[in-house]
Amino acid sequence: MTDTYTLREVARMIARKGDEDDVRRVMRQIRHWTVCEALVPEGDVHTGTGVSRRYGADEVRIAALLLVLSKYGMTMTEFEYLREMLENVVESWRPGEEDLFWEVTWNEEAFRGKVSIGAPEMLTYQAKYRPGKRRKKKPADMPDWLWEHDPDNIAHAIAINATRIFERIPFPE
Fold first, then answer.
1. What whole-number distance in Å separates Cα of residue 31 and Cα of residue 82?
2. 59: Cβ contacts below 8 Å, ≥ 6 apart
């Protein structure tokens, strides 16, 4: 059987401060993310009184990423669109290999995400091609994925070192 963790255990693993107030705040967030289906527990979401929801290790990692994103002001409405991207980040991570970066950009209309190994690529190119210069055609050295992303129309961009976040999670032995 795969290891699973209770709501409180997950909150303790990912809460940055670790004090009881912080753990309770993170527990509320995890409950909210679960009800909104940004996190998927093992078994039923509505377990009933006295029965703890349990989360697998990948869901703990997704919760850690959601916690980081929430610090940047992302709301549940935005998280709804991110589930597939979050799963991709967790599946792409290989412990002990080069750092895995998850870059997220968004505006009022769309989200884009990219997984980069070793260094963030999207933000590097965005800086190079300076937003605000409307282009009719793609520069020869601009990657196709960036052109499709519409670098001139980005409102927000962050790069998260997923490796560092995942390595900080103190899974019990």
1. 17
2. 10, 39, 40, 41
3-state secondary structure of 112: strand
The contacts found for 95-99 with CB under 8 angstroms, 24 or more apart, are 95/166, 95/167, 98/163, 99/161, 99/162, 99/163, 99/164
Rounded alpha-carbon distances, angstroms, from residue 55 to 13, 73, 158: 12, 24, 27
Cα separation values, 136 from 133, 139, 147, 152, Å = 10, 9, 11, 11
Composition of the chain by helix, strand, coil, percent to 5: 45, 15, 40
Enter the tokens of residue 94: 């290989």
pLDDT (tens digit per residue) in 15-66? 988 799 999 999 999 999 998 888 999 876 665 666 678 999 999 999 999 9
> Which amino acid, one-letter code, is at 20?
E
First and final CA of the chain: distance in angstroms?
A: 15
Share of the chain above pLDDT 70, in %: 72
Hey, how many other C-beta atoms are within 10 angstroms of the C-beta on 23?
17
Is the four-CA dihedral 120, 124, 130, 135 of positive or negative sign?
Answer: negative
